[in-house]
Amino acid sequence: MDINELKSNWQQANIGTKNRDELRTMLAIQDHPRLTRIRIKFMIEVVLLLVFLATYNNMFDGSEKPIWVHALLIASAIGYVATDILGYLALRNPIQADNLKTSLHTLYQKLHRIHLFSLLSSFFYGVSLLLFFTSSAGDYPPLLVAGMALTFLLLIYLLHRSWASWTDQIKETGAYFEGESNA
Amino acid sequence: MEQAFLDMIDEHQQIIHKVCHIYRDTKEDQEDLFQDIVLQLLKAYPDFREESKVSTWMYRIALNTAIAIYRKNKVPLDFKATIPESLHPADSTPVSENQERMFQALRSLNQAEKAIITLYLEDFSYREIATITGISENYVGVRINRIKQKLKKILN
User: Fold this and answer.
1) Nearest residue to B22 via CA among B92, B150, B117
2) How far is A15 from chain B (nearest CA, A)?
3) A170, A100 in Cβ contact below 8 A?
4) What one-character-per-residue DSSP string does A141-159 give?
5) Whole-model pTM?
6) Which of A150, A161, A95 is nearest to B57 (CA)?
7) Angle B126-133/A100-134 helices, nearest 10 degrees?
8) pLDDT above 90 covers what percent of chain B?
9) For A74-132, how does the pLDDT look when each residue is reduced to its tens digit (9 = 90+)?
10) CB contact at 8 A, A85 and A51
C-alpha cells in the first residue's frame, strides 16, 4: 500500500455513525462517566476526611494532644483535599491552548505542579497523622506506628506512579513537537 | 445553539470516529474518547468564530483531547495480528481489509506522529498542519517524510 492508496483509504473510511438521538443523549449527560467516577472517588475521600476530622478528637484522645498537632492535622487534611480538587479540574480541562505544542507544554507544567503538590500534601498528611498518634508518650506500640508509616509510604509511591504515567505520556508527546527547537 | 452544534457534529462526525479509531484500541475506549471529544467541542463551541474551517477546529480539539486525556498504558497490539470479528464495533459500518490494515499501521505510530499524519491524510496543507500542531511548516515536511518512511516499512 503506497501513500496515495493510504490517503484514499483514509478519506473514504466511513467508520461508525451515531444517529441524532445518540448525539443528543451524549450532550444531555454534560459530564463524562470517567469524570463522574473520579468525582465520586474525590467525594468519598472528602467525606471520609470530614468524618475523621469530626470524630478524631474524641476517638483518639485528642484533648491530650498539643494544639500544634491539631493545627497540623487540619491544615494537612485541607491541603490534601485542595490538591484533589486541582487534579479534578485538570482532568476536566485538558485543552490549554490553540495549538497542540503549546497546549501540551502548558498541560505538562500544570500536571507536574499538581503531581508535586499531591505528593507533598499526601506526605504532609501522613506525617501529621503519625505525629498525632505519637505526640503523647506511650500511645501506640512502635510496630503499629512503623506499619502505618510504611503504609503511607506505599500509598504515596502508588500515587506518584499514577501521576507519573500521565505526565510522562504528555511529556513524551510534547517533546516530539518541541523537537524542532531542540534540533 | 445546541441545535446548530448538533448539526455540526452530525455532519462532521467521521472526524471524531477516525481520531477515536487510531488513538484507542478497544471499542469501549473509543466510545469513551468519542464522548470526551464531543464534550470538549461543546465547551469550545461558544468561542468558535468560524474564522477557520469547521474541520480544522474539530481536528484541533479532537487530537488535543485524544493526546491529553489520561489513558492506562496497555500492551501494544501487533499490527499484523488479525483482529477478531467480535472486536469490530457492532454499530459501525464494516471496514474493508485494506482500511483495517491502514488503521492498525497508524495505531503503531506514536501520539504526535498520529496527529501529523492524520492531518496530512485528510489533505490539510503544511501551513494548516503547522497552525494546528504549533510547529513550523518546514518541520512539518521533515516529520511527514519520516512518518511516510515508517509507514512504508510497516505496510510492505
Assistant:
1) B117
2) 5
3) no
4) -HHHHHHHHHHHHHHHHHH
5) 0.82
6) A95
7) 20
8) 56
9) 899 888 888 888 888 887 888 878 899 999 999 999 999 999 999 999 999 999 988 88
10) no
Q: Which long-range contacts (CB under 8 A, 24 or more apart) does B117-122 make?
A: B117/B144, B117/B147, B117/B151, B118/B18, B118/B19, B118/B22, B118/B59, B118/B63, B119/B59, B119/B63, B120/A7, B120/B144, B120/B147, B121/A6, B121/A7, B121/A10, B121/A11, B122/A10, B122/A11, B122/B55, B122/B59
**Four-CA torsion A162, A166, A168, A171, nearest 10 degrees:** -150
CA–CA separation, A122 and B92 (whole Å):
45
**Interface test with chain B among A5, A100, A161, by most B beta carbons within 10 Å:** A100
Q: For residue B136, what is the enclosing H or E element?
A: none
Q: Which three cell numbers stand for residue A88?
A: 479534578
Handedness of CA A115, A109, A40, B30 (dihedral sign): negative
Inspect the interface and report whether the beta carbons of A100 and B64 lie closer than 8 Å: yes
Which member of B64, B73, B136 has the closest CB to residue A180? Answer: B136
Inter-axis angle of helices A142-182 and B111-121, to 10 degrees? 40
- The 3 state secondary structure assigned to A20-63 is HHHHHHHHHHCCCHHHHHHHHHHHHHHHHHHHHHHHHHHHCCHH
- What is the overall mean pLDDT for chain A? 84
CA distance B26 to B32: 10
In chain B, the residue whose alpha carbon lies closest to the alpha carbon of A10 is B121
ipTM for the predicted complex comes to: 0.82
C-alpha cell at B117: 499524519
Rounded Cα gap, residues A159 and B9, in angstroms? 37
Enter the DSSP assignment of A13. -
Burial class (CB in 10 A: 0-12, 13-18, 19+), A12: exposed
CA angle A119, A122, A127 (to 5 degrees): 120
Q: Cβ of A34 and B9 within 8 Å?
A: no
Q: Which residues contact B139 (CB under 8 A, 6 or more apart)?
A: A179, A180, B130
